[in-house]
Amino acid sequence: MSYQEIFDCLPPASNFHEKDLNVNLSFRYNKINEEYPILFFHGFNGNSRSWAYQFNHFEDKRSILALDAPGFGKSDPVDIDMLKIAELVKKLLVYLNIKKCDLVGHSMGGMLAQIVASQNNDLVNKVILSCTHKGYALPKGTPLREAYKLRLDQRKKMSNKEFGELRVKKMLPDLKDEKIFQFLSNISEEITEESIMCGGMAMQTLDTTEYLLNIKQACLILKGSNDVVVSEERSHQLEKLLPHAKIRVLQNVGHAPYCEDAKSFNAEIEDFLQQ
Predict the structure, then answer these.
(1) Which end of the chain is more exposed for a tag (fewer CB within 10 A), N or C?
(2) pTM > 0.90: yes or no
(3) Distances (CA, A) of 142 to 30, 82, 132, 167, 201
């Protein structure tokens, strides 16, 4: 199946308007039954399209909900921290009449998942954290990190195609699979200056330490053996604060196991949620 055919597995994007912030939140939802849906949060190089392999795999098994974080995909850019984004997520679930869900968060989305799970033990059934950490814990008001400033500069100067390909090369320097490269670069082409600002500021001021102590749900931490984005040190800091979490290392993948080895990634999700 080509990467374009994988994208064809996605349901169309829908829109939720949150009145207090006057912001539109975009999401994709494939509801197939009354079982808990699986809610997916994407990473800094992604959007709701990142989960096309998961929509395809769970097509006739589980309902799937994936949102575009503020500033990503078709969601409005808005300068808010992860706590406010978590509030938006809860309002979206109320809007969709979802009273309980399983939660999968990748990288930046994994940070958001930590907040949502810690504040909603009654709403979130199980939690899966993929290639993520606790945030950068910089004081509010700190200028944008130099790494993000560089991304902004590159985004201004490069074409969509050039920027998308660069992001994949930085994230997965050893990737050889051309289909996966095109899949990821096609998504990364949609990153905007607003995406970088919104996501970057939300991550750099976040420290989930106190929230992790409140995560009571069963938890699975997924790691890529060749991840060059999340260091072992940052990963271990997360693991220490979630001593009850199961830890699985996916072999021969980097920072995008959800598509690099979608079969293994989906099997880990399925096995954990069925326990």
Answers:
(1) C
(2) yes
(3) 39, 16, 22, 24, 9
**Contact indicator for 177, 257 with CB cutoff of 8 Å:** no
**CATH 3.10.180.10 applies to domain 3-274:** no
Stretch 47-68: mean pLDDT: 96
The residue to which tokens 């604060």 are assigned: 241
pLDDT digits (tens, 9 = 90+) for 101-146: 999 999 999 999 999 999 999 999 999 999 999 999 999 889 999 9
The backbone region for 97, taken as left when phi is positive above 0, alpha when psi lies in -120 to 50, beta otherwise, is: left
- Neighbouring residues of 67: CB distance < 8 A, sequence distance ≥ 6: 25, 26, 27, 28, 39, 40, 41, 48, 75, 89, 92
Q: What are 96's two structure tokens?
A: 């969709």
